[in-house]
Amino acid sequence: MNVSDIIRLLSPELILLITGFVVIGVDLARRREDEGRTAAAVAVVGLILAALAAIFLYFSSPNQIVFYTMAIDLYGLFFKVAAFIGVALVIIASVNYMAGRSKFLGEFYALLVFAALAISVLVSATNLILIYIGIEFLSITSYILTGFLRGNERSEEAAIKYFLYGASAGAILLFGMSLLFGLTGTTDLAAVGKALEAGGDMHWLGLVALVLVLAGLGYKASLVPFHQWAPDTYDGAPTPISAFLSTASKAAGFAIVGRVFLVAFSDFHPEWTQVLAAIAVLTMFLGNLTALKQKSVKRMLAYSSIGQAGYILLGLVAVSNDPTFGGVNGLMIYLFGYIFTNVGAFLLLLPIEKKSGGSTDMEQFDGLATRAPGLALLMSLFLISLAGIPPTAGFIGKFYVFASVINQRMIVLGALAAVNTVIAAFYYLNVIRHMYFAESAVEGGVTVGRGLMTVLAINAIMVLAIGIFAQFFMTWVNSSLALVTASGF
Amino acid sequence: MLSFAWIILVFPALGLLINWIFGKRMGKSYIALVASAAVFASFLTAVGLAAGLAALPADARAVTVPLWSWIHIGDFQVDFALLIDPLSVVMALVVTGVGFIIHWYAATYMLVDDHHRELSLRMYGRFFIYLNFFILMMLTLVLANNYLQLYVGWEGVGVASYLLISFWFYKPSAADAGKKAFIVNRVGDFGMALAIMWLFFLFGKEAGSLAFADIFHAAEGAGAAAAGAMTGITLLLLLAATGKSAQIPLFVWLPDAMEGPTPVSALIHAATMVTAGVYMIARSHPLFEMAPTTMAVVAWIGALTALMAASIAIVQTDLKRILAYSTISQLGYMFLGVGVGAFTAGIFHLMTHAFFKALLFLTAGSVMHAMHGELNIDLMGGLKQKMPKTYWQFLIGAAALAGFPLLAGFWSKDAILYEAFLKSPLLWGVGIFTALLTAFYSFRAVFRAFHGDPRSEHAEHAHEQSPGMTFPLWFLVIGSLFAGLLGLPALFGEHVNVLGNWLAPVFADLEGEVHGSEGLELTLFLVSSGVALLGIFIAYARYIPEWGWAKALQRLFSRLQPVLENKYCVDEIYMAAIVNPLRRLAEGFYQLGDGCIIEGIVNGVGAVTVRAGGYVARMQTGVLGMYALSFFVGVVLVLLWFLLFVT
Fold first, then answer.
1. Nearest C-alpha neighbor of A146 from the set A132, A133, A165
2. Which positions in chain B touch A391 (Cβ < 8 Å)?
3. Which of A157, A189, A360, A483 has a beta carbon 3.0–4.6 Å from A264's, enabling a disulfide?
4. Cβ contact, residue pair A275, B642, below 8 Å
5. Secondary structure of residue A125 in the 3-state scheme
């Protein structure tokens, strides 16, 4: 492997790295004039280039490991493309929102680009050390972004909570990894997997390591009981960052959980199936039940995104060789659609917050259908997608995940998931009820900037496109299943 | 080379989108222009398709134009695709051709509402959006290459019909009529859905799709083994057809549908949508051929509907209702035709009927405008002098309907009756008697409305309509006069039946048809002519010179009059036997089932769930120390789980 090969394989990461610095530089030059618009534009262009590079790599089907630690495989590239698009959408939507709220806009966009870089590294990582570094890289950028509204108590509180929680989780993760290293003498996922397969006296210790690693990685994906940072952080963070944390960042968490479990812990497949099933059930119930009682739509979405994590995890629980309902493909299409749906739903809060001066209470949505019919329609679309009603992306995701569960004869698990969708439908549709049937307590229309409108429209189109042309997207997902390291699945 | 076929759907879709998005800024004339131009462009496309088909050898005239893959599950696949063959092209030509003329007419007609009040721009735009939507759905229906897509169009035209019948939604009668049409049609649609499911169940695996060709092939392969199922399936399809085409027992919605604006009555409830049932049966003829019982039922339903509706039409005084019952009656003829296996004759009558019935409805619309919304023929009279153009147009339409020799309706009705005679002289007897009634009621309308002295204030002051409404109708007049020449009987030579030759490839698989002698054909031909002239003469005798014997004839039948005026009480019977018991049952379910049981369970479960949500939410205290604690407790619990249960 020569230098040009390496540059080609790492081109998405390199592009993002350069973009991040260029954003800061551009911002230094132009900060006063345009409130960060140029910096945001550069960041978006960089992300698009990185996504194009990833897509280009995708078509050359590289399946190679760089530096013994990063697998440039279709699985990783799938998540890279998804995450880059998600981050780009968040940046476009942030421009107006952040303009009046912070002076350090160049840093804001640069940090988002670096967060994308962290995700990019993380989803490719095949080495425990690199996984840890990737997680920490992503976490630290996320902490800063969460607390970016300096002087805003809620934002600061959210950042501190997230940081302390993340630090604990990091410690646990490292503990688990050290156990694994001690047990197998390697930090390479594939080698760990082989060593665990070989068995030995201390084989049981692998289970302990598994639990610790699950806790350390599961917090990124907001799995119960490692979720408690999530509602407070999503609620307090700048809304675009909530959108980022609950989608792109979460997708990265799932991607790496998937890779670690499928590659390193394949030997413990029967065991982790059970524990993940239990966690999925807990996550679904806790997220959905708590969301029921929320008065603020933003907080409701925060809990809803915990509930959604439960459904997504089912894909990993039901992993199998089945070409149609293999579980992991359900997880991937679910996440892909979920990025657009949830980014859309969170970003739709921006004009509402602006109008109300920060509140996203249900009352703010009363009569939205008459005050801003377009927004109400978009919100309804995102909500029915979250509820899993066709013809939306949310339906396709749930369909493939649930079908995989049923396919594995996990009938009880499927039934519990179905019960949860009913509970969730209640609070999602409740917002639609407020928008369409409640008398408006607030007067006047809601204005939406052009950038935000573009993002919302893209999200809506993608939500419908995935729902309607599911076959096309599934073909892509199914071809992305190959993990570079043979994993037994 | 026919792959451009899809643009026939694009035009009406574009038309409706443009009017929807920009209509409010465009003004009425542009709205009408866009809508009409869209349909005209579709018509030109249909002409192009016909030419393209004609260029192919006869046995290759069935081209499938795939648009996109719609449903794809395992080996089963349903595509969204257009089937371009002689039958679908004839239908497309009728729909877009007659449709265009009706759009053109409506551009002027819809400027005011039924009471001569200026129509708002919003309503005007809405009307043309609905009309374009109807054309789009009707084309989807007739060009579908499979049953599922046909069902999409079938439902789509139903929705358009509903929206347009209740177009004057502020009138309770119009709103009710719309609901009635929709609900009665749902009964038929249910049959359609069941039939499609049954077809899928039987042949889905073997055929791998619901495309007509695949299903027919699979059905033929199954042969006698599927005979019973085939009877069931075709009876369900027939149920669907009786709904859409207003036949016994589901005809009750069509007279009420006259509440819609008159162009709608002409387009949807006379010329095109109501013929969808006939088209669907003709399209499914390989299935119906395998079910002789169903064929007999189709023929008898058609004959009886024709007779019953014609007898009701005799006593109606509302001009549009006369035409509505006449439509039901004429659709009955088409059913009779396809029921005796004379598919070509059925489609032929469908086509000629589209011309003269659209003409009659649109002239009735002109009369209605001239009369300020009054449609009672007892209050008309003498309109011949006031509205000469409209008079001649109506006269020609009525003559074509009456089967006046050598006009369009004469040829097509004769073709059906001839084939019916070969099958069963009894069916022919019902048909020929109905023809007598048809001639009578058509000219009763002519004489009552246009001849004699004005019998009301409105009739006194009626005046001819503007050229925007009278001019387009001349094209329909041409159709009513000459469309019959497309289907001349074999009497005149071997290859004179243009339509028959054109459709021959579609119906090529029919078993060898029975052919009567030329002498028989000529005899029936003369009998038909005589009957039509007799009917017209009786109407003349009764209403112009009012001869004594004609009045005596009426007294002879006067005992039947109350029955006919009450339309055989079918509406009342349905109300008492079906609607009211269902209502009571629904009320019972609502009280007991919904009120007590379901509501109780739902509210109970809901309350418990919400309360549980409250408890769970309390765990989110916001205290970071608790979070950290629960994180570690979580880890420990998961570990314990493993140690206790898994290992």
1. A165
2. none
3. A189
4. yes
5. strand
Which residue has tokens 């003269």?
Answer: B356
Tell me the whole-structure pTM to 2 decimals: 0.68
> Is B259:B168 a contact under the CB 8 Å cutoff?
yes
| Cα–Cα distance for residue pair B395/B401, rounded to 1 Å | 10
Rounded-to-integer distance, Cα A456 and Cα B422, Å: 67
For residue B27, give the H/E element and its range: none
* Residue type, position A250, single letter: K
Q: What is the pLDDT of residues B100-115, one digit of tens each?
A: 999 999 999 999 887 7
A489 pLDDT above the threshold of 50? no
pLDDT at B86: 93
pLDDT score recorded for residue A31: 67
Span A317-329, pLDDT tens digits: 999 888 888 889 9
Measure CA of the first residue to CA of the last residue in chain B; give whole Å. 69
Across the interface, whether the CB atoms of B609 and A292 are under 8 A apart is answered yes
Rounded-to-integer distance, Cα A419 and Cα A422, Å: 5
* Conformation bin of residue B254: beta by default, left when phi > 0, alpha when psi is -120 to 50: alpha
Strands (E) located in A64-158: 64-66, 70-72
Scanning the structure block, which residue is given the tokens 């009728």? Answer: B94
Is the peptide bond between A225 and the residue preceding it cis, with omega within 30 degrees of 0?
yes
B608, closest residue in chain A (CA to CA): A289
Asked if B647's CB is within 8 angstroms of A214's CB, the reply is: no
- Could you tell me which of A457, A343, A316, A472 has the C-alpha nearest to residue A82? A343
Region for B341 from its dihedrals, namely left if φ exceeds 0, alpha if ψ lies in -120 to 50, beta otherwise: left
Compute CA B555 distance to the chain's CA centroid, rounded to the nearest angstrom.
37
Cα–Cα distance for residue pair B337/B345, rounded to 1 Å: 6
Candidate from B72, B610, B626 with C-beta closest to A293: B610
Measure A278 CA to nearest chain B CA, in Å: 9
- Three-state secondary structure along B109-151? HCCECCCCCECCHHHHHHHHHHHHHHHHHHHHHHHECEHHHHH
Q: Which residues contact B402 (CB under 8 A, 6 or more apart)?
A: B409, B438, B439, B442, B443, B532, B535, B536
Q: Which of B613, B630, B641 sits opposite A290 (nearest CB)?
A: B613
CB B426 within 8 A of CB B502: no
The ipTM (two decimal places) reads 0.74
Distance set, CA B211 to CA B9, B148, B203, B204, B286 (Å): 19, 8, 11, 10, 13
Restricting to B residues 617-636, those with a Cβ less than 8 Å away from any Cβ of A are: 617, 620, 622, 624, 626-628, 630-635
**Residues in B 303-332 with any Cβ partner in A closer than 8 A:** none
- Size of chain B, expressed as the number of residues it contains: 647
pLDDT at B646: 62
A69-78 in b/e form (b: 16+ CB < 10 A) is bbbbbbbbbb
| Number of neighbours of residue B346 by Cβ within 10 angstroms | 30
Nearest to B323 by CA among B446, B162, B202, B187: B446
pLDDT, residue B647, reads 60
Structure tokens at B264: 């709608």
* Partner residue opposite B624 with nearest CB, options A164, A172, A225: A164
Flag residues of chain B having pLDDT under 50: none
Whether B630 and A225 lie within 8 Å, measured CB to CB? yes
The tokens describing A345, both together, are 């739903």
pLDDT value at position A486? Answer: 41
Q: Residue A447's pLDDT band (boundaries 50, 70, 90)?
A: confident
CA atoms of B376 and B370, how far apart (whole Å): 13
**Strand runs labelled E in A266-325:** none
Q: How crowded is the C-beta side of B587, counted as CA atoms within 13 Å?
A: 6
